[in-house]
Amino acid sequence: MADLHYPDVIALDDYERPAGPAVNRLDDWYQAFRKKIVDRDSEVTVTEDQLSRASIENIRSFTAEPDCEFVFHALDSAYLDWAKRDTTDDYLRLLVFPPCDRSNRVARWAEGNGMDVLEAPDRSELLSTDLAEVILPVGQGPLVIPKLEDWFVRHRHGLRHIRALLTALQGTSRCCLVSCSSWTWVYLKKAVNADLVLPAPESLAPIDAEYLADWLLAFLSEEPDQPVTFRDHEDGKEILRRKDDGTYSDNFMTQLADDSGGIPWIAWQLWRRSLRTEAERDEQLDEENDGAEEQKEKREDASEGAMFWVVRSQPPTLPRGHERAACLLLQSLLIHGALPEELLWSTLPSIGETNLVVALIRSGFIERHDDQLRCMATAYPVIWTSLANSGMTMAHF
Amino acid sequence: MAALDTGDVKASKLINDIGDISFTQIFIIVVSVWFLIFITRKLLPVLAKHGPSRLRLYFLAAVPFIRLCLLAASVLMIIPIIFNITLQNFLVIAGAVSVAIGFAFKDLASSLIAGVVAIFERTYRPGDWVKIDDDYGEVQQVGLRAITLRTPDDDIVTIAHDRIWSNNISNSNDGEQTLMCVADFYLDASHDAGIMRNVLHDIALTSAFLDYSKPVVVVLAEVPWGSHYKLRAYPFDMRDQFEFISDLTVRGKLGIREAGGREVQAPAMIQAPGQG
Prior knowledge:
The structure holds 2 protein chains of 2 kinds. The radius of gyration of chain A is 23 Å and the shape is globular. Chain A contains 17 helices and 13 strands. In chain A, the strands form 3 sheets. In chain A, strands 1-6-2-5-4-3 form a 6-stranded mixed sheet. By secondary structure, chain A is of the alpha/beta class. In chain B, α2 packs antiparallel against α3. Helices cover 50% and strands 17% of the residues of chain B. Chain B has 8 helices and 8 strands, in the order αααααββββαββαββα. In chain B, the strands form 2 sheets. In chain B, strands 4-3-2-1-5 form a 5-stranded antiparallel sheet. In chain B, strands 6-8-7 form a 3-stranded antiparallel sheet. Chains A and B meet through α1, α7, α14 and α17 of A and α7 and α8 of B.
């Protein structure tokens, strides 16, 4: 794990999504076209992994989202030296973070390095009509404001606190590291001209297929007592195995890097969702009842350790006839990170779509967490494509 | 007699011998072109509807252009099959066609020519929102003779192309993905205009339909009965324009009331500008 070199923090404009394999992209286009025009009636809004209970919880590495230590190392190399400097120039830094970060990594990194963290006011206060005032705490060392998405609500009363915060930032001489998601940044640039106060946004570099494969391999090697093998469920070939020339023998990781937009935790969630246990595969093989000898060999190979079959899961589809309203709802959730349901509706036009939340939860687009709704990382590639097709202004990633 | 013979020969050469004309070839050309136009008219709108929003107008605008090209190509292929093309014959045919058009099909010819001009000048394209006289709507189809508009009230209006010679054509988006929407607010003059402009500005900035790449502007004009505010902004998709204006209006009214403004209403016999 320590040998992996994760690229440093980069300028936001330099972020380039990893390219996927051309063949798979053509196939994706064909499948999307077929689904929209030819095969609409056969759409299912429940994803494959919801229908089957993939029992992968016996592997510790799969039970919780990984910390992504390399992200913390990248933050160390980008900001620790800066935080120790006494110069007054460049005292405001903005890190545009990928969406669907469930672990609040910037705040954890700041606290781990003993930095002051400024928490956002409670969301219930954001819509009050009282005058908003933000006073930045005085102290030594840098101040970290980890989630700008918690500082506003896209409502006619909901921009006061974020404006007050930006005003306070202009008046401070203390080094401040501000962070927000890429969708929040797109909105704040428009709504409160945040780019005038924070003019040089930076972001984590995208991870490419090579790095992704190395990371997952290193990650799995933390389970020495239970070696794990992954096989493509279509052809039985092993995934994550290097060829003699050092390259990987399949393009699964290239596709995964493309689907995830180079965001590590989304790649991990997609990877986790694509895994199936051997038992399920066996059931399929019994039903198919062909190629028995070849499959037997593969089972024998797998008997030395845990083996998982990797499938290309069908992505979820937006509720038919409600795509427009669904896109508005998903965009609002991405801009705010997470929102209670009542607050979510206050950010949307009156569109009479009160049952949409239930449909999107069932489809695997959003989830409830601590009474808040948020987008699921596994649906992010579909959400991205849907919002892009609807004509919305898109984030960098 | 000799002169008469020469004239007969020339006339007989104007049109090829009936035995030399390949009606099968003409039939194949006509059917092929008809089939290609049919496919284009059916397929491209479907692609426009289900494909990415940014490609929608390109797909729609390609329909009349492809049809024009196909028709022109078919005419160019059929003419040499029927006619013996020489300079003299060309002048004879052109003269005859001109006379026929001048007397019988003047309006039709004017519309056809205007249609060709409109396609190349791009006065309007399928998917554009245009206003011609009192008719405002989305261009559904650009035909050879006329266009069809679908109005916000779901009426289909057919308008001949030759209106471009004499009428102003107002194109709201001109091939762009979005268009400016305006929400009007009429207020009693006794209020703080600075606060009110900020309130209305925030109303637009917090709309779910807003296109973040376009500006938001609030303009104010004093009129005899009070203050007229116009909130100008762009939705990310012009198909949402009426929902966008409704959203701005609904939330704008709330914002105005909270900011201490009072809306005024003109007497029923007075109509606002632009409403007749």
